[in-house]
Prior knowledge:
FbaB-like; 13 helices; 44% helix; alpha/beta; single chain; TIM Barrel; eight-stranded parallel beta sheet; globular; two-stranded antiparallel ribbon
Amino acid sequence: MGIKDLRLSHILNPKSGKSVIIPIDHGLIMGNIAGLQDPLGTLENLIRLGIDATLISPGIAKITTDIFSSKDAPGRILTIDLPLSSTIPGESGNIIGHKIIANLEFALRNAIDVVKVLLPWGEKDSVQMESIEVVATVANNCDKWNIPLMVEPVFWTSHTSKEKKTSANLIGHAARIALELGADVLKIPYTGNILEFKELLNNLKVPVFVLGGAKMDSIEDILKIAKESIEAGAKGIVFGRNVWQNSKMESLINALKEIVHENASVDEVIKKHNLF
């Protein structure tokens, strides 16, 4: 096992080898978003519920060291870039610039397990090249210091149609380019089809985690995406807003853990945790 593999193992459940990751780094881009007005309180609650890992910003990493001091604390993935989508805090639009906001020395000093960057697509030419440069630069530095890099291709721009944003073909292209740029781990959308997603994962050859994305219509949809992703071969899920903005957060996390780690069915966990 290499050093990168060792660090990556810190975000995985030791029994199942998979992971329920609940990110709380949304405030970096979205500001004081509902559900994360008290990020430390939310984080403490998530740790109590036994999540396997979380995504955090540099600022939150600095003030939560004590929370992660126990032996069974979840792994930490550090978001080290910022694609700015508005000059007004809390508002959004097309990305106007993409910069690295923390270096690998910060990650090493704070005993971070994995670092993560976004790879937005469909932006204006100059921003698109900035994003590619961010990923390539961080990938090279991660190789130098043996820190695993998670890359998240995203399709936020208004220039990309809704159909294209959910296109299995487009997701496949974006994931492949992220791999070519040096990603050790990928965080991508589920394509909606188990067989095609399984083929994509088999071809990528690196651990793939499925993102939750925008607010889903129902708890059943959340659980179904988790179940089908794991069945297709994903190493885990990275669900944020769909979890900590849900009034049944505790029951939902327990249900997700049983699906990811114990191969439970969607119907089974819905009934067991009263998630109707």
